[in-house]
Design a protein that fits this description.
This is Glutamine--fructose-6-phosphate aminotransferase [isomerizing]. One of its GO terms (cellular component) is cytosol. It is found in: Cytoplasm. One of its GO terms (molecular function) is glutamine-fructose-6-phosphate transaminase (isomerizing) activity. This protein is of the alpha/beta class. The chain has a five-stranded parallel beta sheet with strand order 4-3-5-6-7, with helices on both faces. Strand 5, helix 6 and strand 6 form a beta-alpha-beta unit. Helix 2 packs antiparallel against helix 10 and helix 8 packs antiparallel against helix 14. The two termini are 30 Å apart. It binds fructose -6-phosphate (F6R). Fructose -6-phosphate (F6R) binds next to helix 4 and helix 12.
Amino acid sequence: EKAPYPHFMLKEIHEQPRALRDTLRGRIEGGRVVFPELEEAAFHLRECRRLFLTACGTAFHAGLVGKYLLEKLARLPVEADIASEFRYRDLTLGPGDVVLVISQSGETADTLAALRLAKEKGAKVLAITNVVGSSVAREADWVLYTWAGPEIAVASTKAYTAQVLLVTLLALYLAELRGTLPSEEIIPLVEEVKFLPERVAQVLAWEEEIARLAQALKEQEHFFFIGRGLDWAVAEEGALKLKEISYIHAEAYPAGELKHGTLALITEGVPVVALATQSHLFEKMLSNIKEVKARGAWVLALTADDQAVAGETDVCFHLPPGNPLLMPAVAVVPLQLLAYYVAVARGCDVDQPRNLAKSVTVE
Ligand code: F6R
């Protein structure tokens, strides 16, 4: 039942603080991440030299966040591949390798085929899924559940933020297991993770303002989303949300790539959503923002505590401050709301976008 919300998507966007609390439940003890379900996996996860990661769509975008965090915190090289590519590549995959598979439904045909291929080649499979008893859950060697609750809307929202949270916990868990980060650095991060549900709730309060913005943007036919590092991963998800439910052409780019072609598309009035939450990349993002502004773009920025960006943009949202590594789960929320309200303003069927199905069980 979606009442009092007009759509399941909006209901699920609002369920995110609760969903994230459920993802966290029982997984943090005394400043450490605990995963009793990985007891048998620990040996493999400690010894493996690299990790393969595969998924489709939104789940893949959560994987991109995971790739970045696993490399940063657990010093684990991660090869991330869309499942329909993974399964047809001649992978150098074998015993000793671990493949991380991410799937909300646990039934996506390509993801399941990638899982089966990995097992055939002798690799171990760790799955992140939302559905207990799903094919992915049954066939993987080890499973971490997101516990986001049933997701009905075709466009994934709470499953994505729960996946992002879970890969963050996994990276912190592996950082301890593999001894790549001293506990003085792990503990404050783990403690800060507990505030994510609250930060998401704070950002949800921007809903009315975003709905008004959406009204003003509803006639646009092209959108660009730019960011660097983790912000680029979130930009990919923001663009996907917008195109799948509003049918507006949206593209995400690593901001440093603009010069290599995309800048040609930035003309007077083109909306650019710029994510600038990563402090070590902030100056670089600021110059990219100036570049698109100089071509007449209309810029909506999402930043954390950096004030400088506000002066350079048309609209600027300040996210609750925090460690940049923990920004994705919060930064995506205004982008979900923007996609939702633009789609509603355009009269689209938000919960059942054309040509799409919730669970893609055929190739
Ligand atoms: C987009 C969306 C899809 C799914 C993709 C994978 O909002 O929901 O891109 O993320 O079809 O689905 P799962 O996670 O069920 O494997």
